């Protein structure tokens, strides 16, 4: 095997690994951002429920 062939294969493995890593971190960042938004929604829903309960009692 030529030394040049080894270099080309090594670079291709690095590129393939980089693509998998990029997809992994992209999906991970999308999944991590969702709980922040859902906590805001939950806080708003809790506030609405409190106001509705307050209106029922009155």
From TrEMBL:
Keyword terms: Membrane, Transmembrane, Transmembrane helix
Transmembrane segments: 6-27
Protein name: DUF4083 domain-containing protein
């Amino acid at each position: 095997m030529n030394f040049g062939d080894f270099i080309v294969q090594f670079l291709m493995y690095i590129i393939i690994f980089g693509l998998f890593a990029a997809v992994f971190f992209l999906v991970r960042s999308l999944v991590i951002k969702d709980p922040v938004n859902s906590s805001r929604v939950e806080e708003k829903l809790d506030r609405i429920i409190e106001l509705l309960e307050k209106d029922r009692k009155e």
